[in-house]
Amino acid sequence: MTTEQTAFEADPTAAAATALLRFATAGSVDDGKSTLVGRLLHDSKSVLSDQLEAVEHASRNRGQETPDLALLTDGLRAEREQGITIDVAHRYFATPRRRFILADTPGHVQYTRNMVTGASTAELAIILVDARHGVVEQTRRHAAVAALLRVPHVVLAVNKMDLVDYAEPVFADIAREFTRYAAELGVPEVTAIPISALAGDNVVTASARMPWYGGPTVLEHLETVPVGHDPSEDVARFPVQYVIRPQTAELPDYRGYAGQIASGTLRVGQRVAVLPSGRTSTVEAIDALGEQVDVAWAPQSVTLRLTDDLDISRGDLLVPADDRPEPSQDLTATVCHLHDRPLRPGARVLLKHTTRTVKAIVKKLPSRLTLDDLSQHPEPGELVANEIGRVVLRTAEPLALDAYATSRRTGSFLLIDPADGTTLTAGMAGDAFAEKADELRAAERDDDGWDF
Fold first, then answer.
1. Closest C-alpha among 145, 135, 188 to residue 370
2. Each residue's pLDDT tens digit in the chain (452 positions)?
């Protein structure tokens, strides 16, 4: 038994707590998001000297006396010229306590698709608000996207506190309004932090100008937020990526199924089912990093061996025999359309779910969601780029999807153009968010007395 395996058996929660945190940032135009990211990288000593020199040189050329830290993240020429974020930029940095992958996403309405792709794998989202303007339409949009994508942790960074004299009531009012709205969306946790990205207050170093605030800085929260959990709490899902058959003199009968565990844990002796066929077998052995182990958990990459020789290939899904999703050819989901070409009923697409890709047809588009007020517009006829709506699909072969609310990994999928392989749409199986939005709209009508 390996050291890692022993640690898991002794304390699975601690073993699952990863040293890596994926997080995304979002904010309205001119809220200072790029400056916050630049400050975070600069003050945490995560910027190479040549990068800092390049920023200082570019800042001087623009007539600025001090380095413009936003230039550390605004990499595209168009971004630097306009002073905005357009593309999703991924930044990698580390502190002694944790490693980070940051997705710096745009704030413009027309780049909603970029935020969806950037935050789709995030465990935490930082949403910026300008202290002078408070919660605006785009703030609510970003909160709705975070709720739609089931991001577990949300940080409200109230920026530019230096421009409101570091006033506690200003911060308190904004935090109260945002937290109330986020709770209505079903966001499980919001941490509000008053900051000044330009001056460095409460980003990496605690601010002496806001003695009324006793919470963590942005970096402290990123380093300590609990993102790990016990993998045994999740149902095991193992998409087969590759079938290994060496057929050598040393391994004449070896048949292994390689892939990454999407969720949960798998153990030797466990009874599993192969979907969509429904055939069952028992886990005979688990090979990880060149040696056999008794237990493995998400997101480890392993090779499984079964006691029976079954017809298993790439795209099949191994699940516990007593806890399996029901394969179906009919799928209803919430989607964000990513491509400039509209998505319309009748479109023939490829649907990619984990390692499985099947043909599918768009049967209908029941509604389009307006994130500003969570209203549903029935039968839109098409979804254009950046729009979010409901879609009903029919697949050529059965698929075993979980609800996205249950599993972000096995509840998500992509729609692909079969002609050129272009990604068209990102989808989330199930309708939890749409139902939640409908409930909120109904509650608002009842409260306002405008229920016609």
1. 145
2. 444 444 444 444 444 444 789 999 988 877 778 788 888 887 887 765 556 566 555 656 666 655 555 565 554 334 334 444 445 677 888 999 999 998 888 766 666 778 888 888 899 999 999 999 999 988 888 898 898 889 999 999 999 999 999 999 999 999 999 999 998 888 888 999 999 998 999 999 999 999 999 999 999 999 999 876 666 788 999 999 999 998 777 777 889 999 999 999 999 999 999 999 999 999 999 999 889 999 999 989 999 999 999 999 999 999 999 999 999 999 999 999 989 999 999 999 999 999 999 999 999 999 998 877 778 899 999 999 888 899 999 999 999 999 998 888 999 999 999 999 999 999 999 864 434 444 544 444 444 433 32
pTM reported for the whole predicted model: 0.80
Longest CA–CA span in the chain (Å) reads: 79
Q: Are 25 and 313 in contact (CB under 8 A)?
A: no
